[in-house]
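Record pair follows.
FIRST:
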Amino acid sequence: MASLDTPRKSRPAPGMSAGLTQDQTRQMLRDSMGEHFITCSVEFWFQTYAVALPNNRRFGTSECNNFVEAVKDGIDGNILDEQGWKAVKAAKKVGQTEAVIYRKLVEIALAIGQAAKGVDPAIIVRNKLMESGSQTTIFETPGFLFRSDFRLLPGIPNLAAFLYGNNVTEGLTVIRPTQKNTIASERKQLMQLAAASSVIGEVKPKCGIGPKQDNESKVVSAATAIMYNDPRRRHIYAFTVEDSTFRLWIFNRGHVCCSAPFDIHEKPNYLIQFFLFIITANATQLGYDPTVKRRQVSSPDSPDSPPVIAYEYEVEGRRYLTEGGPISETAAYHITSRATRVWLVREIFNRPGDGKHSLSDDYFVLRDAWLYSDAKLESEIRNDIFERLSKIAAEEGKTLADAAKPYFMTFKKDWRV
C-alpha cells in the first residue's frame, strides 16, 4: 500500500510483481541475505556500527556500566534491580500478553534517557522509541502492509520539520507543518510514515527456532521495504527479542550484521548502551544521507493539486529537485546492492534579492548509486575511452574520440559523496 502523496504509487514492488505472498516474500528476502550476512560480538557491533560523529558522542561500555547504577536509582527504583528489568519480569510472571510485556521497553528507554541526563545534563535525547504493533506503516512505494512491533521516531519534538524540511521556494511550495499546528490525526499519520521509521524492532515472548526465524524474516522484510521506500537511507538499525534474548542489527548496502545474543536481565548495560545510542543519535548516525532531503511540494503547473513527495539532492554544492517518480529504481529493492535510482531533476537556484528559490528550465537526469570502493566514476571511464580513441585517427583529420563523443552522455556533475 502506498501513500497517496507520491508519484511512485503506481510502481509495484519487485516481490509483489513476482506474484509472491507476503510470507513468501519475507522468506525470499531472508534467504537472499545469506551471502551478505555476518555476525559479531556485541562489543564489536557497538565499536563498529554505533558510530560517533563530530559534535556527538559515543557511549562506551565503561560509561554505560556507570549508567546502570543511575537507572537503578531513578524513578523510585522501579525499573532495574540486581535481577534485571523489574517491569518486564513482573509482566511475564503473571502471564501478560506480548504487547503488555514488551511495552515496558518504551518505559525503559525513557528511564535510560532521564538517568543519563541526570548524570550528564549535556546529553540530548532526540528520538523516541514507541510501540507500533497496531499501526500500519505508510509507504510511498507499493508493497505489503507492515506493522513493526517497535519503531524509533526521529526529530523529536518536531517530526514534521524532520520529514519535510523548512525551505520555501518559488515555483514549488514546500509544505511546512509543525507539531504545534498539526492536528492529532495528521500527527498520527506522520508517525506512521516509513520515512520516520529510524529503527525497527520485533519481539516474541518465547525462545525457539520458530520465534527467532519469524522475527528475522520480519525485520529483514521491513528493512528492505523502508530502504527501498526512502532514497535518503544509507542504513537502518533493528533489534529482535525472543523472551529476554536481545540481538542488535544493522542493514546497509554492503552487508547485514547481527550481534551475538545477550540476555537483557544479565547484561542490562548492553540494553542501556543500545537504547542510549538510538535515542540520542542524530539523523546521519541513524542512517539518513545529509545530502538528500525529503520535500513535500506542489506542482508549479498545477498549484491547486495535492502536494507530492520529491527529493532534493545536493551534488558538489548544487541542488537538484526530483520531478515525478524515478525513471528506474528496481535495483534499489534489495538491501545489499548498488541501489541504483535514476531521476528526472531540475536544478534549484537561489533567487537574488528575496532569499527565495526557483527551478531551472532545463531538465537533467540524476543517477544515484552505491559504488564499490575501488570503482571508477562513469565520467572517468568515459574519459579513459576518449583518451584511447584520441590516439586513433579518423576521417577529415578528426580522431575516433571526436566521432564518438555525440554518442556519450554529457556529465554536469559526477561526484562521490
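SECOND:
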Amino acid sequence: MQRGMKAAVQIRRAHRIAVLPGDGIGPEVMENCLEVLDKAGFKAEYTHCDIGWEFWKAEGNALPDRTLAQLCKEKNDAGLFAAITSKPAFEAAKELCEELKPTGIKYTSPIVRMRQELNLRTNFRPCRAIRNNPRNYRDDIDWAIFRENTEGMYGGVEFHPLPRTVFDALDQAHPKMKKFEKFGLENIAMSTRIMTRQGCENIIRDAFEYAKKHNRKSVTVVDKPNVLRETGGLMIQTARRVAEEYKGIPLQETNIDAQCMFMLRQPQAYDVIVAENMFGDIISDLAAEMVGGLGFAPSANIGDSFSIFEPSHGSAPGYVGTGNANPIAMIRTAVLMLESLGENEIAQRITNAVESVVESREVATRDFGGTANRHELTKAIISYL
C-alpha cells in the first residue's frame, strides 16, 4: 500500500497555470513571483497569455480571444495576472493603430471583461499587516474584504451621449428624469448602478461563510442606503436576511463615507467587510494603504468554475525599468492561488519567508523604507524558504 501511495504522489500532474503578465510593472513583478514559486517547489505548467495595452493598440482588443480561451478549467487550473494599463475611452481611441481608428472600436478594461464574461463574481482582498512594516497604520490590522465583482457601478451599462430612447423610457418611469432634458442629451453622460438580489446574496453569503470557517468575529456590510435607496436598500435587506442563517456572527451596517472614517478611528472594530463593486474597490484600497500600501495587497477573483488571482495595484508605468517595483503583492497573490489549489504547505512557507523579510527590515524596497531593488528583495525572500 505504501508503494502504491508513493507512486500516486510521483505521477501527480503539475498544475496548469495561465500566466497573464500584462504591461507596466506587471511583467517585472510576475518574473519575481514565478522565481519564488519555483524555488518554493511549486510544480506547474505555465501558459503565457497576451493581455494589455499593446494588444489594444495593435489589435483593438486588450484581451484577445486566444487569451480568453485559455481561462477555463479545461485548459488551466487557475489564472495568475499581474497588472495592466487602463485609460478612459477617449484616450484609448487616440492610441489605436491608424488602420483601426476608423472602425469605432471602443476600449473596455480587460480585467472587468474577465470578471464579467467568466462570472468571477467574488473579489476577495485580505488586508493583513505584517509586523514591523514602517508603512503600517497599526500592526494588528487583519481585515478580509469581499467585493461584488460583476455588478454595481462597474457593471458597464453606460451612455454618452444619452440616447433618446433611453431618456424617454426613464422619463416615463421616474419623475426626476425630466429636469435633465434641458441640458441636451448630447451633454448627458450616464453610468448605471445595477444590482441584483442574487448578486447581493452571493457576495454576502461568501463573507459570512468565510467568517464562519475562519472564526471571525463579525461581518460589516458597507453601502449608502440613505441616499442610494433602491440599490443600497437591496444590499442591506439582503444582508439582514442572510445574517439570520448565521446567528453566531454579528452583522454591522455602515455607510461608505462613515466606514472610511471608522476604519481610521477604530480599525480593531472590524473584521470581515463586504460591499458592492465600487464601494468595495474604495474600501479595499484604503485598507491596503493601512497595511503597507498596494505593494502588499493581494486579491483573488473567484468564480464557480475558474479563478484569477491578481495584486490590487495597477501597472505603475513610472516604476517600469527602475527596479523599484515591490513584488510582495504579486507574491502574496500567488499564495492565495496556492491555497485555492490545495498547496497549503508551499503557501505557508512563502508566507513565512515574506513576513520574515519584512519584519527584519534588513532588505526593503523604497515603498517601505529601504533602498533594495525588486531582485534583491526577491533574493532575500528566497533565502528564507
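COMMENT: DSSP finds 14 helices and twelve strands in the chain.
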